[in-house]
Input
Amino acid sequence: MFRLPAHSWRNALFVRLIITNLIVILPIILLGVYLYNWSYTNASNEISKNTTAQLSYYLEDLNHEIEWLEIQQYDILQDTDMVKLAVTWDLMDNADRKESIDYLLHRFTSIKNSSSYIKDIYVHVRTIQKTISSSNGVDDFNQRSFDYFRTEVDKKQVRLIRWDNSLHLSAAKYGGKEGDPLFIVQIELDMDKLKESLQQISVYPESGSFLISNKTGFTLASNDGTSDALESYVFAALRSKDNTMVTRLNNRNYHLDKAYSEPLGLSVITYLPESVVKKPLNGFNNWAWVFALTSCCAVVIYALSTYKFVHKPLLLLVQSFRKMEGGALDIHIDHEQKDEFGYLYNRFNQMIRKLQTLIDQDFKQTMMMQKAELKQLQSQIKPHFLYNSFFILNSLAKTGDLERVELFTNMLGEYYRFITRNGEDNVHLSEETRHSRMYTEIQKLRFSRRIKVEFDELPKEMERIRVPRLIIQPIIENAYEHSLEKMTDEGLLRVSFAMDQEEARIVIENNGDNPISDTQIEALQARLNSRGESGEMTGMINIHRRIMLTYGEDSGLSLSRSELNGLKVEIRIRLKGAGDIV
Output
């Protein structure tokens, strides 16, 4: 797989295309999520609004019903026969007593039948020690009920009194000078009917309602078996200032809505599972998931197709350009499809071929120029060197030293044979060193008393290195001509060799007539690197260029100050591999 560098992934066309696709797809997905949440919120608010209104209507109807029962209770308190029975019971005969009780029972039964919320009507008559009930008739006086409801009536704190886990209405009739009431009317509300009414307002599946008395703590649930945990959340909602809240129980969310009746002191709270609210949206939710998955698949398919048809071909072209920048010109891109990339690949291949042709032409032209410079260098037989050589030969002949004449003529012949040979341009370093040593031997005949030569032995591992011809001797000749020959004191020329795993070095240095400055060395190095330089540096420039052309930019001549206080010329040859030593 092709990879872009880590620092450039943000600028990759492939990444930009994927991001563009996501920018197009994500707003649609987010819009769907927003519509779903908006629909759910609206549905939840609408259900809460309707539920709260229904609870308010329920409490209002219940209040009207309680008001009607209170009117009936007041009528009982003011009933003449009821008062007469309580006051004149001892003065009545049995027939009058039976007639009065039958009338009252008929009256109580009529009131009970007038409302479905009445379970029973009790009248506790203290003066006759009897309790009259619409359901049970005449019983013994219920002192416990009488005392409890008398206390609650005197408190006047609530309209609906809690007694034996049920709700009651009660009122007392006072008469005479005594402090105790003549009788107390007790209307017991039917809890089953209230539960049925609560069930009627719980119209959703799994929903339920609670009727709670805020002051007495009475609680009536529409569904039996309601969990204590849920009931505790209901009481928490009762204390909350909000009419609507959401709570979580057993990994389920519940919507709680409440309404409160100030006249009754009652609150009605309904609970509804969130899943019921979301049920109408399940179809939309399923389609939203289908849309989201389809969008993700579309993004993946788009990414794969973009990678295959755009990113991969484009990356191949980019990598080919990088290989070309690295110097590889044997690149050819094959592309079967006749599309835009096919056109680019064909143009790239043509460009590579044309570039290679131009480079070959430039290389050949450069090599020809170097060879021409070498030929020029070879043809530059200095007249004074030739004259001095003949002068030495003449002097040796006059002295009759035939052995040295023979040696000198042989050295001179080898010298001119090497510089005028037209064979291969590259020779072993051992041959180049032998030629340079022979040149110094010739110069020794002239300056043996004034110039000392220290010429180190060439290391064995450097003998087979192939180098361009005439890279050492011209530098030595330059040292003689421009420095050593002009010295009045003793001159010193030193030639040494060094080698490591990366490069081989040939060092030519002299002590010089006058100490050379750093500024002069920098100027010489600048002239050496200048392609347009000519004149006395022509030979060294030629050597520098030929070494660079053969071994690369890191090779060539390096000038510095010698420890001998003269100029130091270092020939550096970068070793690329076994091919450098043949």
Summary: The CA atoms of residues 426 and 467 lie 5 Å apart. The chain has a mean pLDDT of 79. The chain is about 55% helix and 20% strand.
